[in-house]
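Subject: design request, 258 residues
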């Protein structure tokens, strides 16, 4: 009699487990499951945008994506729809998280299919300050007027980016030899190590005065802590004007003794 009771209990338990597995299995086969999630670059810096990659198990069509950030917590919600027809290859999401300040981040990727929660994936990563050489310090160089004559004063414009505020332009040097122009910028890094990681643009305007007729080449060198970190070069034509050119094209009054 006791043996019959034990067998009955075992059978009931087995039936219960089987029912539970039958009930839970649809959750694991629901469309919208995430196969993998990762960021690129794998070791991001504050000077490089962070890209999120999400590979899905099923062939789906992205309806919309929502990205929310609160301090170091980032939540990405992906809303998928069933594809028309027979579908296709598994879906792949690629989106930018933008430039992130240095620190440790926790990322939660949540997948929804037909507005029903399907799956979630979590990962964490560090963003390091990086080096200013990770991005171009000289972004654009141009002259005004764009097509100057020997009658006109030529202004050289330089714009660029630094990874944080606080970079200081401590000196410049302008040299003009015939149709060759060289302009050097000397920068120092911020003194405060805790400066906020925000990409900071700068612009510098240089008076090249009136130039002689001909094709001029301008080379700009950017130095940081006495080390050249970037350079740029442009060429432009100076046409003859109605007035005679300057007798001394060298800008002597730009020298330190003036």
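Subject: RE: design request

Done. Sequence follows.
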């Amino acid at each position: 009699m006791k043996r019959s009771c034990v067998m009955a209990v075992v059978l009931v338990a087995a039936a219960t487990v089987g029912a539970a597995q039958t009930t839970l299995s649809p959750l694991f086969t629901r469309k919208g499951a995430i196969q993998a999630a990762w960021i690129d670059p794998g070791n991001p810096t504050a000077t490089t945008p962070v890209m999120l990659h999400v590979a899905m198990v099923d062939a789906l069509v992205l309806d919309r994506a929502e990205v929310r950030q609160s301090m170091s917590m980032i939540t990405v919600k992906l809303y998928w729809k069933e594809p028309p027809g027979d579908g296709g290859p598994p879906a792949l999401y690629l989106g930018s998280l933008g430039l992130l300040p240095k620190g440790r981040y926790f990322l939660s990727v949540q997948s929804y299919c037909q507005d029903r929660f399907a799956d979630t994936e979590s990962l964490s990563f560090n963003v390091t300050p990086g080096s200013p050489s990770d991005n171009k310090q000289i972004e654009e160089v141009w002259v005004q007027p764009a097509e100057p004559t020997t009658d006109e004063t030529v202004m050289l414009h330089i714009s660029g980016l630094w990874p944080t505020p606080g970079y200081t332009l401590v000196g410049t040097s302008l040299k003009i030899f015939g149709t060759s122009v060289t302009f050097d910028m000397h920068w120092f890094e911020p003194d405060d190590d805790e400066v906020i990681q925000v990409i900071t643009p700068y612009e510098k305007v240089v008076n090249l005065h009136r130039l002689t007729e001909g094709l001029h080449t301008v080379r700009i060198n950017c130095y940081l802590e006495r080390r050249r970190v970037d350079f740029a070069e442009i060429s432009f034509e100076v046409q003859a004007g109605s007035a005679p050119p300057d007798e001394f094209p060298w800008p002597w009054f730009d020298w330190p003794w003036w």
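Residues 1-28, 247-258 have pLDDT under 50 and may be disordered.
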